[in-house]
Amino acid sequence: MIPLDKDFVNRCRNADKIAQKKLFAPMYRVCFRYTGMQPEAEDCVMRGFMKAFQSIEKFRYQDENSLYVWIRKIMVNESLMELRRKTNLVMVPEEEARDVGDEPGIIEKLSAEELYSAVTALPAGYRAVFNLYVIEGYEHTEIAAMLGITDSTSRTQLAKARARLRSAIEKRYSSDGTNG
Amino acid sequence: MERMDDKLLRSKLDSLHELPQGYEPSLDSKWELLEAGIPEKKKRRVIVWWAAAAGIALLITLWIFSPSEKHAPAVGVKTNEAISKQNEAPTIAAESFPAANDKRSSAASVKRSQAVAEKDHPAPELAEQKQIVPPIDTILSAPVNESTIASAEPPVRTRKKKYIEIDFNDPVKEQKEEQQASAQPVKFRIMPTQQGDEQSTPSSLKLKKSF
Q1: What is the pLDDT of residues B78-126, one digit of tens each?
Q2: Which carries the bigger pLDDT value, residue B78 or residue A78?
């Protein structure tokens, strides 16, 4: 999370392009984490920025994180709309449900970029639930309402997402071990 | 309940604020596209303000350097505009009073303002009379002739009597005076009478009228 002070907020309000440009990369990262595709992520960033800067007069500064959180929320909504529009949030059938956290320390070993690519490689449905629950901190009831699914589906999707992530990381490690 | 690995995952994924390596096209080229879509409210406002300020400055300069001030006839035109503005002033003054809840007080205040405005600004008829008067420079510079002075003198007005004066105290008096003025003098003389007539007529009747 980037700390954005009041001066930065005022610059954004005054349509300062340098200030606005600073937000592009982190917001692109957010959108790409949901869509998993560059063109879709760019479209989401575009629409999200337009919405954000059109209604930035309504934004009320609270602390250094408030603007970042506010814009990120807009980006997440745009990404979810994009997912609903272009892809079916296919809920993958039941598999084994081993969590990522079964082996402690495996996440610590991964770099942020590796973890990011592993998350973006998940199927759309898993990715959406995983991002909303783990990164954004929503509850299952909220996620269910957002995606138009039931609570239990959200829970199972999250479990599956964790399992898929774990296997992806294991594969990566095993390949690294064999290679190195 | 939040798990420990979730916190770690979140912190790691949130730490990525740069574009991924190999991102194409560049951020600048992408930003150009984005820039076109982002609204520029503030810029437009600034442009509007600048345009308004420039317009006012232009009007002021035109007003200052306008040739109408140097030539006398144009002054009349200018005063016309000023007078017309002054004539409009009372209504503006009346409108400028805020509408109070009490209608009486507002009506009274409007009347007062109109009275003050009429005092300060002459009526339209007077204003028109002012327009007829030539500027003082032209009057002073014009050559002076006696004829012009004579013509300049106002004509003496004689009142025509539209009625007959009647003295109601003595209405007959005037008639008498008129009769006296119109009457011819009558002369009497004594004439010698004839003998035959002496006995028949008295002496008082012997006087003969001689007109």
Answers
A1: 555 555 655 655 554 444 444 444 555 555 566 666 666 666 555 555 5
A2: A78
What is the C-alpha to C-alpha distance for residues B97 and A160, in angstroms, rounded to an integer?
74
Looking at the partner chain, which of A46, A53, A101 has a beta carbon nearest the beta carbon of B39? A53
ipTM: 0.71
Q: Which two tokens stand for residue A157?
A: 């999707």
CA dist B54 and B52 (Å) reads 5
Give the sign of the dihedral formed by CA A146, CA A149, CA A155, CA A157: negative
Among B3, B12, B27, the residue with its CB nearest the CB of A112 is: B12
What is this structure's pTM?
0.51
Q: Do B13 and A17 touch (CB under 8 A)?
A: no
Q: Which two tokens stand for residue A27?
A: 């917001």
**Among the listed residues A87, A112, A91, the one whose alpha carbon sits nearest the alpha carbon of residue A35:** A87
**Which chain B positions have a beta carbon within 8 Å of A45's beta carbon?**
34
Q: For B73-85, write each residue's pLDDT tens digit.
A: 544 455 555 556 5
Q: What is the mean pLDDT of residues A66-90?
A: 83
| Interchain contact, B12 vs A1, CB within 8 Å | no
DSSP, res A23: T
Give the dihedral of Cα atoms B122, B124, B129, B131; nearest 10 deg.
100
Of B3, B14, B38, the CB nearest to A1: B14
- With a CB cutoff of 8 Å and minimum separation 6, the contacts of B103 are none
